[in-house]
Amino acid sequence: MGDIGKRSWIPCQKRFYMLKWIAGWIIALIWFAGLTRSAAQDVIPEQITPPFGFHWGESQKAIETVITKAQAHIVSRDQVHGRDAWTVEGLIQPSLKRTIIYFGTEKTLVEVELQYERSDWDLVAYEDFLNSARQKLEAKYGPPTVLARDKKPEGDVMETVVGYQWQQPGSSIQLFFYSAERNTDVYRSVSLHYRAG
């Protein structure tokens, strides 16, 4: 009887250690899967910086140097809501019509607005461009806040505005589609607004 008890105990003991070993591996796999998933969710989005190699807080002189080196041209210098605003043409980017650069009270860079327009684009082409830009920005900065999604008449003009915003500490970016239609007259534009603060 003593031998029989010993023989039955040895397989039970082996099964017990095997189950412990399997349980340990299962716990390790679950922990690793959770670690991997939380690491994927905690991906830090890229910092929002202005385009064309500009930097927030740069002086007007430094910005003008970059524009000159890019062989672009400042076509106007205006005051818009108490800020200096330069309209620039010739900065190279697909479908970019013009760039408006805004300077704050200290005459340093605070905003860059890119305006995209093409005379050969119809509504579908503008929507495709908007959706492509939104998807690229989402991939870099995460999901946006919807700022506007309106279509309504303003007098005899039908206006459509769609807007998104990505906000980070110290900077933001807004993407807008604007359309104004009166009979056969149509104006459409997509704009990106890079903003400090």
Task: Describe the 3D structure.
With 197 residues, this protein is of the alpha+beta class. Helices cover 35% and strands 39% of the residues. An eight-stranded antiparallel β-sheet has the order 1-2-3-4-8-7-6-5, covered by helices on one side. Strand 6 and strand 7 form a beta hairpin. It starts with a helix and ends with a strand.
Give a concise summary.
Helices cover 35% and strands 39% of the residues. The protein is α+β, with helices and mostly antiparallel strands and 197 residues long.
List the helices and strands and how they pair.
Elements: H1 2-41, H2 60-69, E1 73-80, E2 83-89, E3 96-103, E4 109-116, H3 123-141, E5 145-154, E6 157-168, E7 171-182, E8 185-196
Antiparallel strand pairs: 1-2, 2-3, 3-4, 4-8, 5-6, 6-7, 7-8
